[in-house]
Here is the input.
Amino acid sequence: MIRVEGLTKEYGRFCALNDVSFSVERGEIVGFLGPNGAGKTTTMRILTGYMPPSEGTAVVGGFDVVEDSLEVRRRVGYLPESVPLYREMRVREYLDFCGAVRGVEDRQGAVARVIDACNLGDVRDRIIGRLSKGYRQRVGLAQALVHSPELLVLDEPTIGLDPRQIRGVRELIRDLAGEHTVLLSTHILPEVTDLCQRVLIIDKGRIVAEDTPDRLQAGLQGAQRVRVQLARPDKGAEEALRGLLGVADVETLAADRLVVTLDGETDGRAAVAETLVRGGWGLLELQSVSVSLEDVFVQLTTDETPAGEVAAEEAVA
Amino acid sequence: MNRRSGSAVLQICKRELNAYFVSPIAYVSAAVLLAVFGAMFALLLYFSREATLRYVFDHGVALLFFVLVTQVITMRLLADESRQGTLELLLTAPVRDWEIVVGKYLASLALLALMLGLAGYFAVVLLLIGNPDVGPMLTGYLGYFLLGAALLAVGEFASSVTESQLVAALLGLGITLMLWLLGAAAEMVGGAVGEFLAYLPIFDHTWDMLRGVVDTKNVIYLLSVVAVFLFMTTRVLESKRWA
Here is the structure.
């Protein structure tokens, strides 16, 4: 559905995208993850035919975004980060207009369909400027869907919504997944774990990782970590744990809280618990700490990252 | 393909016209234009006792006010799309840049035509109370329409380079007045450059029409102002894709 090769975008001297390549298959939901200013919006704007790249090619549904820009735009539904709404229009009018400029044949049917899909029935005759943010976001989504695009490009679709609205929009996106290919950008990590089959992590205009959310987490996990809380902590606890077979490291989080890193070859949790109980430190809690996607993200996109790791990820990408 | 372009232009024009009528802009500009022109018409009719629209139409105040109204009509066309972020919607729709520019322009032109149509009652009044010369009245309206067409194109261009409607209106006014002043400087410069400068003021090409003479040269001039400014507007829109 999307094939991007060597995409580069320069604004004057600033390089927003640097030799980005990736592809997305039909029907996939792909998350585009990265800190602000990493190049997510720029990439999306190129894919939607809004702006041409400085170098490289992007092909959407078989059409080049520069050569056949209009054909690409016909096949793409786009929800920009700031939802492009005409505040003075009524919801139905607005969706009708969006269908009209995209050459939708049966506009009445199309508008009714997206009003239904996005749960806008209650507000179809309301003026957009008076709607709540959650509704506006859904109107924005309806707009992107009205011409039944093959590819849906969503730039931060849940930004600024309350948790209930976020859940609603996510459910909607999940429902759409079957018929449409979805590329969505976000910097909310659970969203990616929740929705996407594949993640592209982008930083400073480069793709630094590309994999399934699970594998990205697993790849960096390596060792298992457990957090323990003690009723009667003292120095001896840490030393005793360090002496155990299979314990790689012990960190002190607070006086009564320790994080034990196990080397992962054998499950050392039982040994940890036994040691702490026998030693009389009063084990209150023992909990596995998994490496979250958040940690992965921070590791991949901060400067402290060991150089070797980034290089390895880049080789994968 | 032609049919599709036609429909994109039409859809954009339709939306724009609707937008005019849900905001106060259309009503206020029409009301103020009719009030000012109406007052001048009444006064000039009372003092001159002549059944003619000429005194209103080529009055400096009327013209200046007309320029102002055209700039108010066009100031939001593209500036507001930039500000509201809806330009991104249009620029990612399967629509060519010129179709956006022309669609919006036609909406402003339709509004202007409507206003001039309403101002047609001056002519009706004269026909009822006197025996005016119909030819010059018609060319006067035509002159205003073509002058307006040129000024709206200037206004849309001004609206394309900024996000602020106020800046757009001032800029459009500035461009119009600068063209006029450059024309006034023509004599000072002389030569070929002077001849070119003398050609620039938009008003100078409407005087004859306001007085009853339609010269093709002037009509072509005004239409080419429309073409040049719509072309430049399209280029500005294109350039927004690069930044």
